Amino acid sequence: MQALFDFHTHSIHSYDATATFDELCKNALKKGLQGICVTDHMDFDKKDPGYGYYNYDAYMKDVNRCREIYGDRLLIKTGVEITYQKEFKDKIKQFLGNHKFDYVLGAVHLIDHVFFLNPEYILGKTINEIFEPYWQEVLSMARSSLFRYIAHLDFIKSVEFKDSREFRVNDWMPEITEILENIIESDAILEVNTSALRRRHTGPYPGWAILKRYKELGGTCVAMGSDAHSAQHVGFGFKETARRVRELGLKILRKQDV
Ligand SMILES: [Zn+2]
Ligand SMILES: [Zn+2]
Known about the structure:
Elements: E1 5-9, H1 21-30, E2 35-42, H2 56-70, E3 75-83, H3 89-98, E4 103-107, E5 110-111, E6 114-115, H4 119-122, H5 127-144, E7 149-150, H6 173-185, E8 189-193, H7 208-216, E9 221-225, H8 238-247, E10 251-252
Parallel strand pairs: 1-2, 2-3, 3-4, 4-7, 7-8, 8-9, 9-10
Antiparallel strand pairs: 5-6
The structure holds zinc ion (2 copies).
Residues 81, 107, 109, 151-152 line the site of one zinc ion.
C-alpha cells in the first residue's frame, strides 16, 4: 500500500500538546509514514486558551533542525492550524501574508468565544442553538478563501449530551451540502481527521455520510490527519480509514501534491 502522510499533528509549540518534534518524527518513521506536517495552533481570540502561545521562529527552528536529522527518510512540511472566527478574518489574512507555510488548515473551535466541546456551551441550548451557529461559522470559513485545507468538518458532533438531545447528521445535510459546495468551488480540500476514532466515533471527522456527499458533489481528494497531540497518536487509524476513503472513490493527498 502507498505510504501515507500525516498532515495534522501538534508539538509542544501548541499549548495543548505534549509531543516534541523529535518524538513526532520518530513515531512517523516507526509507522512507515511518507512524511509529517506539524500544524501547531495559531489563535486570535484573547479568550482562547491558546492565545499568545504561538511562536513561529521557535517552530521553524524545530522544523529545520528535524529536517537535518530525519530529512533523508521523512519529508517534513510546514503547517499551521488556524482557529477561524469571522471577526478575525483580517488578522488571519495579515498573519498568513507574513508567514510562509506549505499547509494551512482552517478550523472552527469556538462559538461565541467558547470551545463548543466544553459542557457550558450546550447548557440550556436547543439542538438548533447548538449546531446552527457552528455550520454558519464553517460556511463563513469555507467562503473566506483563506484556507486551502478544511479541518475536522463535523467536529461539533463530539458534544456530549446527558439527555435526549443528539446530533443527527442527516438533519444538517442541507447546511453541510452548502459548505461542501463552497469548499469544492474554491478548490479547497477536506481533511479526514482520525482523532474522532479516539473519541467515541466509528468514523473520522467528517463522518462517512459527509465524505460520501463530498464525493457526490464533485470532491476528489482528501488530506489525512491524525490531529495527534501526543506522539503515540501519529498516523492513528490511518490504514483502515484510508482503505474506506479509497473505497468511496476519493484520492488521498500525497507529499508531492502539497
Ligand atoms: Zn482543531
Ligand atoms: Zn489540531
